[in-house]
Design goal:
A hairpin with a 2-residue loop joins β6 and β7. The chain has about 375 residues and is α+β, with helices and mostly antiparallel strands. The chain is built from 13 helices and 19 strands. The strands form 6 sheets. It has a 7-stranded antiparallel β-sheet. The protein has a 3-stranded antiparallel β-sheet with strand order 2-4-3. It is elongated. The two termini are about 20 Å apart. Helices cover about 35% and strands about 25% of the residues. The longest helix is centred in the last third of the chain and has 22 residues. The structure holds flavin-adenine dinucleotide (FAD). Flavin-adenine dinucleotide binds next to α1, α2, β6 and α13.
Length: about 375
């Protein structure tokens, strides 16, 4: 169920084990979120070595570890290469296919699956259980499938218009509520700032907040602030907003050096900030803060710790991923649903979250493969009871 990275990986494992495989997806074509992920450069995985790689999964690291040990960053890269898609490690340690996009990889993968006899049924929306079988809404009306084994890989609940709407949580027990993950935050910009700077990148800034301190890039949007650094802070800040964070707009200069660069008070605020090398958007941010009441007598202090009030997390509809989903207590160590023999779950449907940087897809591929292999073993067992 679900023709995303996790479902297709499960299908590959099942088909290679010799089973006849049907992949049902609600959408008119497969892997829409995967294709969307490739739009800004498909970040497949990360080169951070084990065991540090696993730290990114927080509380879920121990449950995900065996699946990622079996098929982790190296396995994933080898799998891509076998599909004719070379990969490379970017300067930040992130791993991308040379083509950067998802479409060539997906095309080659679907070709391999078709050669293995995997049938993809589009516009087949899973709508619930019919006893032990699965009920679907299809263009030809309702249908019921009773496969020997099933892998559920319906994704999380972010970007629902790409297919993963989380509706399945209504009939699959043991789900933690969904929350946006790797999302931006809304900010009340002034009209002038919004009109001038929406879409402007904030390069190399440092963000400090309770429980978070890191450098990176952010992006000013019409509604607020997004980008890698904000996504990295999002799990920490999600429950705290509205919250005021501190932005260091010149993290490469210490206070004394910045004070020297800013010069004396004879110049206008904008000119002093320009002299200190601040980009127009960063100058705009300082001016916003001053308009909002921030004291300007210690300008260097303000540039090093600019208060920015994040009003609320952006919603699931534009979050990169979601937290919540099928709880780890609802599945056994082989990812089989407790109380539903022969039904397995994989991918973002499971309750884990991770930062951007390739950790999301790595866990989806790893759990998809593990669930497919476990389902194949279950199907091959003499009594079908594993
Ligand atoms: C803009 C964006 C950029 C991203 N960039 C990256 C990146 O660079 N690196 C990275 O690691 N991750 C990235 N991600 C996250 C990554 O794409 C997801 O984590 C991954 O696609 C999840 O895989 P999945 O197979 O679990 O679920 P999905 O890819 O969501 O696939 C689930 C499938 O199930 C189908 N489905 C859902 N419900 C039903 C139902 N009831 N019946 C039938 N079918 C159903 C859906 O139509 C969908 O095709 C990005 C996400 C977004 C939105």
């Amino acid at each position: 169920m679900g023709a995303g990275p996790a479902g297709l990986m499960a299908a590959e494992a099942l088909a290679q084990a010799g089973l006849r495989v049907v992949v049902c997806d609600a959408m008119p074509s497969p892997a829409r979120k995967f294709l969307m992920a490739g739009r800004g450069g498909l970040n497949l995985t990360h080169s951070t070595p084990m065991p540090r790689f696993l730290d990114a999964y927080g509380d879920a690291a121990a449950r995900l570890a065996p699946f990622i040990a079996a098929f982790g960053p190296d396995g994933l890269r080898g799998w891509c290469h076998a599909l004719g898609q070379e990969t490379f490690v970017g300067s930040s340690g992130r791993v991308f296919p040379r083509a950067m996009k998802a479409s060539p990889l997906l095309r080659a993968w679907l070709g391999r699956l078709a050669a293995l006899g995997v049938e993809v049924r589009a516009r087949h929306r899973w709508t619930g259980w019919e006893g032990a079988a699965l009920r679907f809404a299809t263009p030809a009306g309702d249908a019921v499938l009773a496969p020997r084994v099933a892998v559920l890989a319906c994704g999380g609940a972010s970007w629902p218009r790409l297919g993963s709407d989380g509706a399945w949580a209504g009939w699959v027990g043991g789900c933690a509520p969904f929350a946006p993950a790797n999302m931006g935050f809304s900010v009340r910009w002034s009209e002038g700032f919004r009109a001038r700077f929406a879409g402007a990148p904030l390069k190399r800034v440092r963000l400090r907040a309770p429980g978070f301190d890191a450098m990176g890039e952010a992006l000013v949007t019409a509604a607020g602030i997004e980008g890698g650094l904000v996504y990295a802070a999002s799990a920490t800040l999600r429950g705290l907003a509205p919250v005021t964070v501190a932005l260091d707009l010149r993290p490469d200069l210490d206070l004394a050096a910045l004070r020297a660069r800013l010069g004396g008070g004879a110049l206008s605020l904008a000119n002093r900030l320009r002299r200190a090398g601040l980009a127009p958007v960063a100058i705009g941010l300082v001016q916003e803060a001053v308009r909002g009441g921030a004291a300007r007598d210690d300008l260097a202090g303000l540039v090093k710790a600019l208060p920015l009030r994040l009003e609320a997390p952006m919603g699931l509809e534009r979050a990169i991923s979601s937290a919540g989903g099928l709880g780890w207590d609802a599945v056994d160590d082989s990812l089989m649903l407790r109380g539903r023999p022969g039904v397995f779950a994989a991918g973002e449907m499971l309750d884990w979250e991770a930062p951007t940087g390739g950790w999301l897809l790595t866990a989806c591929f790893a759990t998809g493969r593990a669930a497919g292999l476990a389902a194949a073993r279950f199907a091959a067992a003499p009594c079908g009871d594993g």
